[in-house]
Amino acid sequence: MSTASPFSHPLYVMAKVVGASCNLACKYCYYLEKSHLYPDDLRHILSDDLLERFIKQYLESQTMQQVLFTWHGGEPLMRPLSFYERVIKLQRQYAHGCEVANTIQTNGTLIDDHWAKFFHDNGWLVGVSIDGPQEFHDEYRCNKTGRPSWRDVMRGINFLNKHQVEWNAMAVVNDFNADYPIDFYHFFKEINCHYIQFTPIVERILLHQDGRHLASLAENNQGELADFTVSPEQWGNFLCTIFDEWVRADVGQTYIQLFDATLANWMGVEGSLCTMAKTCGHAGVMEYNGDVYSCDHFVFPAYQLGNIHTRTLTEMLYSERQLSFGRNKYDSLPAKCKACRYLFACNGECPKNRFSQTDEGEPGLNYLCKGYYQFFEHVAPYMDFMKTELEEQRPPANIMDAIKQGRFDNKR
After folding, report:
1. Are the C-beta atoms of residues 299 and 34 closer than 8 Å to each other?
2. pLDDT tens, position by position, 123-149
3. Would you say 115 and 77 are in contact if contact means Cβ atoms under 8 Å apart?
4. Which residues pair with 66 in a beta bridge?
5. Neighbours of 150 (CB within 10 A)
6. Which residues are catalytic?
């Protein structure tokens, strides 16, 4: 097929530079088990040759002037600083006028002065995985010997702050911390974190012959819910409780990705959160050996698109198979979802969580549906107000004054 791309969406590929290798062993991690897909290779390191091939192809595949690289793991800081210095060199070599930006997702435990200075000097955005206060974080985020990691993460954050690195928090919401939303939210305010992504943990346990233990969407409703999975009721209460504090005091000061994405959908514009988009499939994943998969949460044999050594990124990410994967997000919704008043806001959320059934027995319902519906019902009047403010070219933060004036007293 032709490698020319007529698509207006940027092409994203998350690079797994060390595969599933990590210095931690978080109990709920969805990616550690991916090492079982490559049992004959213990190192799981992206080679220099493959790195150059990837960067060259990635830049050539873009239809936009701005190009974002995302470096992921496992733990990507297990590669030395020299690896990322080579990344910068190759990007400059092949950019040909494109504006290149980089983001990296890390558990934060390996960040020191050298790493922080590199991120600052090269303008990298750093995502740090941290699950709130020490008691919450250390419940599940420990190393292979059971040693907790919160203190190491906070040390890394201090280095980022010292060097004025732009960073945001990626916080997993699980069965434990979901019961303490105010404590959870206050922690991030106390450490002066203004950009937060909440990710609900939903996994099913299903043992495979190769050693993997998590179920994929292709395995339908098989498997038992993992004990760390957040319940729909917990998720709904968690979101509503934090929203109530945020909307009264922190609009325009603290940016919560889910709230921003909800407002974007209320406005009818595309937000930054793929789980809330109508279609998906624009963001693939490349493993350390060049294997490309449909999505970070679909690194399963059934969703492998090919290998960069034999097919280009453009061929794989714009293949009919991948385009069908993206369209299927909407097409596979049950009738209940397509008739839902909040379909525009939710779009069924992430397909990986659609293993439940409707009351009528139709498959494909999102496990978290009840929680999301509670959230959208709760925030609807506030979203309506902020939408009007934006349409009139006024700041949505005006909602805080409106609340103080009692305009939403009957909504509490």
Report:
1. yes
2. 999 999 999 999 999 999 999 999 999
3. yes
4. 99
5. 21
6. 296
